[in-house]
């Protein structure tokens, strides 16, 4: 799984509010939780390319830093939860 390894080594740290659990290495997957720690979505990533994983995370609203160690802006601290729309 060289693409997954590439993502883990090079890109994982760029994403805010994302953690890696190696307990399921034979069946790697992304597990998304809500604010109550309930699983809301599971996505197998064994056959995904690093760019596909990145695209998925960005489409779900995960904040991506431009470099490792960069501070996450205050308005993105609680993401990937989508910010509520302003009432008109």
UniProtKB/TrEMBL annotation:
Q: Which Gene3D superfamilies match?
A: Sep15/SelM thioredoxin-like domain, active-site redox motif
**Domain Selenoprotein F/M: residue ranges:** 1-62
Task: Provide the coiled-coil residue spans.
Answer: none
Output the Pfam families linked to this UniProt entry. Sep15_SelM
Alphabetical list of InterPro entries matching this protein: Sep15/SelM_sf, Sep15_SelM_dom, Thioredoxin-like_sf
Which family does the record claim for this protein?
Answer: Belongs to the selenoprotein M/F family.
Question: What's the protein called, per UniProt?
Answer: Selenoprotein F/M domain-containing protein
Question: What taxonomic ancestry is recorded?
Answer: Eukaryota, Metazoa, Chordata, Craniata, Vertebrata
């Amino acid at each position: 799984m060289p693409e997954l390894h590439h993502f883990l080594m090079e890109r994982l740290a760029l994403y805010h509010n994302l953690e890696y659990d190696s307990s399921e290495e034979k069946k790697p997957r992304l597990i998304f939780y809500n604010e109550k720690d309930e699983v809301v979505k599971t996505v197998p990533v064994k056959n995904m390319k690093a760019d596909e994983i990145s695209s998925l995370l960005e489409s779900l609203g995960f904040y991506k830093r431009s470099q490792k160690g960069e501070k996450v802006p205050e308005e993105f601290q609680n993401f990937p939860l989508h910010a509520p729309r302003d009432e008109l």
